[in-house]
Design goal:
Layout lengths: L2 E5 L2 E4 L4 E8 L8 E6 L5 E7 L6 E3 L7 E6 L4 E6 L8 E8 L13 E4 L3 E6 L1
Parallel strand pairs: 2-11
Antiparallel strand pairs: 1-3, 3-8, 4-5, 4-9, 5-6, 7-8, 9-10, 9-11
């Protein structure tokens, strides 16, 4: 069964950095675009970043562009989100997601992703 497991979340001061990791298992995700989303308490799940199957095309939400970087290592079935210059408004549960096999183009739509991790909490203090 396809599974995604996030790690790397935690508590950090404003201006600090964190690197989230997403380990995929159960099937190969090499042909799938991957994405990161986040959800703050009482709010909808929102797009953060996406990367295509080969890793040479990325897209970011305006709110994180220039601060966050998504990357992937297909040899290890891993996806990463490097987060720099963190702000209190970045506080949320961060989710890794995978599109279905064969859907290699990145997407900002929650509905385009078929596999989700359990999430990892990121808290940024002011």
């Amino acid at each position: 069964q396809a599974q995604l497991v996030e790690s790397g979340g935690g508590l950090v001061q404003a201006g600090g950095s964190l690197r989230l990791s997403c380990a995929a298992s159960g099937r190969s995700f090499r042909n799938s675009a991957m994405g990161w989303f986040r959800q703050a308490p009482g709010k909808d799940r929102n797009f953060v970043a996406t990367i295509n199957w080969s890793g040479d095309s990325t897209k970011y939400a305006d709110s994180v562009s220039g601060r966050f970087t998504i990357s992937r290592d297909n040899t290890k079935n891993m996806v990463f989100l490097q987060m720099n210059s963190l702000r209190p408004e970045d506080t949320a549960v961060y989710y890794c997601a995978a599109r279905r096999a064969g859907y290699g183009s990145g997407s900002s739509m929650v509905s385009d992703y078929g596999v989700w991790g359990q999430g990892t909490q990121v808290t940024v203090s002011s």
